[in-house]
Amino acid sequence: MASTHCCHSQHHSALDCIDAVIRKRSADLEKHPHAGQTRAWLLKELGSVLRDRFAESKDLLDIDMAIENHRQSLAALESNHPLRPSLLSHYGFALRDRFVHSENPQDLDDTLSQHREALELLTAGDPDQWDVLRNVSGALQHRFLATGEGADLDEAVALSRRAFQLHPTSRDSHQLLGELLLQRYQASRQQRDLDETVEVHQQCLDRRPDDRERVSIVNTLAATLLRIFLETEEELPILEKAILLLRHARDLPLRPSAASLVHVNLAVCLRTRYQRLATCQDVEEAEMLCREALHQSESSAVRQVALENLALILIYQFQTLGQSPKLDEAISLLYAHVSSTDVDHYQHTPPLEILAHALQVRYSSSAKDNARDLDEAILLLHKVISILPLTSHGRYRAASTLALALSKRFHHSGSKGSDREVSFLHDAIQLQREVVSTMDHSHPKRREAVNVLACVMGEKYNHSRKLEDLDEAIALRREALSLTRLQHRKPTDLLNDLAHTLHKRYDHYHSPEDLKSAVSFCREAHLEPSDSTFMTASLLGKLLSKQYDLTRQPDDLREAMEAFAAAVIDESELVAQRFFVAQQWAHWADKHGHESALEAYGAAIGFLPSLAMLGQDLSSRQAALTSGSDGLARNAAAVAIREGEFERAVELLEEGRAVFWSQALQLRTSFDDLRLRAPELADQLQMISQRLEQDSYRGVSKVMMESYDVALAAVSETQSRHLRLLGDEWLACLQKVRCVEGFDRFLLPKTYADLRHVAAHGPVVILNATDSRFDALIIKAPGTKILHVPLTRFSADTLAKMRAHCGDACPRSRGDRAMGWKDKVESPETIMKKGLAKLWEAVVEPIIRALDLKRSASPPRLWWCPTGSFSSLPVHAAGIYDSTEGESVSDYVVSSYIPTLTTLLRDAPPKVDLFKMLVVIQPKSKGYRPIPNTEIELQKIENIVGNHVLVRYGLPEAPALVSNVLSEIPSATILHFACHGIQDSVDPLVDEQDRRSALNSALILEDGPLNVTEIMKLSLTNESLVFLSACQTATGDQSLPDESMHLAATMLFAGFRGVVGTLWSIDDKDGPKVADAFYRHIFSSVGENSGLRATPNTAEAARALHIAVSKLREERSSFLRWVPFIHLGF
Fold first, then answer.
1. How many angstroms from the chain centroid is the CA of residue 726?
2. Cβ(313)–Cβ(294) under 8 Å?
3. Which has the closest alpha carbon to 97: 133, 57, 152?
4. What are the CHAT domain coordinates in residue numbering (predicted)?
5. Strand ordering across the sheet containing 787-790
6. Where are the domains of the chain?
7. Contact 355/338 with Cβ under 8 angstroms?
8. Quick check: 998 and 661 in contact, CB under 8 A?
9. How far apart are CA 661 and CA 397, in angstroms?
10. Residues whose CB is less than 8 angstroms from the CB of residue 1046 and which lie 6 or more positions away in sequence, other chains included
């Protein structure tokens, strides 16, 4: 009786079809209530259909019912009935299906019992003997995979040999025996098993020279040869044989599906050879073959395999060649596949695993290591584990990968993570201990599992600082290395891992033996040819640098610096990793006074634009710069100053600071000069820049660990990839521009020959602060040499005290204009006075004397360009204020601040004939205290500025709505905001440690915040000046002082030439006073007879603030009321 379980109707689901068959079989069964052959057969058929439904539904009730039907079918026949072997076999199949789902060992034992009994009932020569032998072999193979019991595998091999002898020409006979022999080789490493594996598959091919299934046999043999190569790390000939077989198969007459499978298998072999030989032709051909199979094959299974291998090829190209678009394409392809495919079946889990792998690769390659990719990878791996059977080898692999990902996620959060983040580490340890516990010492995968557990335990040590955790990690590393050598595999990576872990114990225990062993293992790894040369060189550099600390042997230092340099110039490695190693090189070279220090710093700074590349959104660019970049430019400048290279010091400071703004401003560069020489190129570059800037403002989705939508993640990935591709287009276009005569340095870091013109309007003083030295570099005029003033009276201790003085004296940060004070024994006034005096004596006075400046009623302009900790100090207010004989900065100069020198290389604010002034006040805001003096502030401005040029918002008849204010800004010349300000507000969509961001800063208006990014989006051409009469608008991020991440700097980027901002909270009643004096000056400075209605001269903004603050001081106001007002820009 034939068994037909298919349904031809296209209007029913698979389950509907199966249910219809079940109803029919049940009805047939009711017609035969008595025991006998017919009932036994019908029971078997019903059991088989229930197995089919279980395969679709995964409902255990279905498989339980199937097993019961098969059991009853046996009971309906006498023990010697000729149909009994067939019934026993089907009973065994059902028990095996339940084992795969439940992993109950008894089901597996019962499966084997049924197949054994079936075999015993068959007589020699029975035509079913071959099938039943294969069934018993398969059951033994299943039990071996579940338990690792070698006797089961030996018996399976013996039985498959019997089956092979019964049908020596059968492809299935060859395939089963070959597979079992290969598994036994993997378990026991007996060369004879490996040799016989190849021989069995080759015999199958030789015995069927004209068979139409020859292509399938070739595929099987090639796949076997590849597995042998990968498992044994044999020499290339075995892989070359697989490639030759597949190339020959391509010449055979092939069906499209068979051709696609050959293409995919050949691509896999070529990819593998590329990983060994790095022959670009191999990887290019492999990529082409996969793309052909992906687009031409009608088989979904072949398409999936093609996709998986294409993704792996693209990922590997990124890892070896640094081609970012390749990785992005791999991720996009995988997202598209998993979002459009039912991935809840174990056969569809490989794309999920590869996607998780790709996301982890991208996570590791980013400077900031944005956790978004890692969180998505973790969620994908959780899904994979939930789908795969408990005893599946794929599940162990996924669990190990997840354990590593969880460990990295904990590392990302820092050693003092929240309880939720610490749970990542605990889960990783538990997962990997379970994986290792399932593998005895002979298990072929124990090496990888043990090494992953070592990684996780190393991370646990980072958290616990307990030596026993580190000792366990080292013991596991040694075991993994021992297993590697027993398996005759290349030990390079494990040697590096062991050296790294021993180095960690040296840092804890300071045992020279640990350091000596680490160096020895690293040197051994260095001698091995591998893909890990970058890792080995960078680790060797660090180890030898520490060894030099002990030995003071010049050869150790020389070799360390050479190793660092070799790693940094390795272009096959990711930029983020090279940047990290360049920092280490710079640190050790600087520490030991090595001649390569300046070269190392230059290399590290040169990587910064690539880390914060324009093909990222604004938040990602800013986040990338928090990855250890702070202090880099300052330390580099200190080395250059130490070597007397002052011009180089200035170049390094300009190139390595405010990188976020420098990158962003490139998109607003004028292309007029380029258009005269290469108009098409200029148009292309301008189009790309506009699209880049527009798209970079989009938000970044937060990955929610509680719920994950693959489709939404795919959409987000598409948007991100689009932006990265635009970034690549931008870089490619820049390379073309730099080939145009006269444009070879277009948008490259400025040389000192360009930067010296910063002093065209007055002296510029760069204040450089490092842990080792403090210096001032003065550019007095474009044609003069740089004046170096060592600040020898300044020290790290002095700086700490000064910051403490200023910090203790400052009002509490309330984000508003109301003053609040910190409770201290000393009054804030006394504290501030002491701090300003120290600042004068140690920093400012030596600079004033070096410039030979004199006191003046109308002092000249001077620009301060502070770096590092100097950025948080009120240098403009330094002075001696406790006597009538005292002196201060304002006696000698009118102070302005600039975040970078490039700020002053833009055009000066023009003197305009027609202008518009926009004034926005917000006396009351929900959730904030009232600031009623803003209304008086507006009145003061109205007394100065003509009504016909004044646009006002914040009045009952004209509320300060965000949309209205934004619409007015592009046509305004001067902006004045008198409202609450939010600096570094919390962004709930990013990790806690990344939440502070000037990009989240805002001015609070009637209907909500006016975020600074909304202003940055505007195309501003007329804007000369913005007055931010709010609080803390020029307070930078202490974690990134050199990036000038505050509201005032953002306004400079947006296009304003000058900004008035505040360092801390200001008194509400001072707003009107300062505004009145400020605007009276700039509106009366055009000419003596101009009066107060004259067109303003915004170039006088700094002097206007100088005068306004002087008047506040004349009222004997507190330091804390006048010091916070500062001017930035022109």
1. 19
2. no
3. 57
4. 836-1129
5. 787-790, 774-779, 764-769, 861-866, 894-897, 1125-1129, 1058-1062, 1025-1029, 974-978, 917-921, 950-953
6. 1-102, 209-321, 757-768+798-903
7. yes
8. no
9. 44
10. 983, 998, 1001, 1032, 1033, 1034, 1035, 1036, 1037, 1061
DSSP state of 213: T
Summarize pLDDT for 1075-1121 with one digit per residue, the tens.
Answer: 999 999 998 854 444 455 557 888 899 999 999 999 999 988 888 88
Strands 1058-1062 and 1125-1129, how do they pair? antiparallel
Count of all residues that appear for the chain in the document: 1130
Per-residue model confidence as pLDDT tens digits over 871-881? 888 999 999 99
| Structure confidence by residue, pLDDT tens digits, 885-925 | 889 999 999 999 998 898 888 765 555 567 889 999 999 98
The string of DSSP codes covering 435-471 is: HHHT--TT-TTHHHHHHHHHHHHHHHHHHH--HHHHH
- Give which of 154, 145, 147, 211 is closest to 184, Cα–Cα: 154
Radius of gyration of the chain (CA): 37
Contact 446, 483 (CB under 8 A): yes
What is the pairing mode between strands 774-779 and 787-790?
Answer: antiparallel
What are residue 961's phi and psi, to 5 degrees? -85, 140
Measured CA to CA, the distance from residue 1099 to residue 347 in angstroms comes to 70
State the Cα angle at 409 between 404 and 411, rounded to 5°: 95
Q: Decide: helix, strand or coil at residue 391.
A: coil
Q: DSSP string of 866-934?
A: E-GGGGGS-GGG-B--SSTT--BGGGT-EEEE-SSGGGGGSPPPP--SS--EEEEE-S--TTS---THH
Token digits for 356?
């998780």
For the ranges 308-317, 578-587, 619-628, 869-878, the lowest mean pLDDT is seen at 619-628
314: CB partners within 8 A, 6+ apart: 287, 326, 327, 329, 330, 333
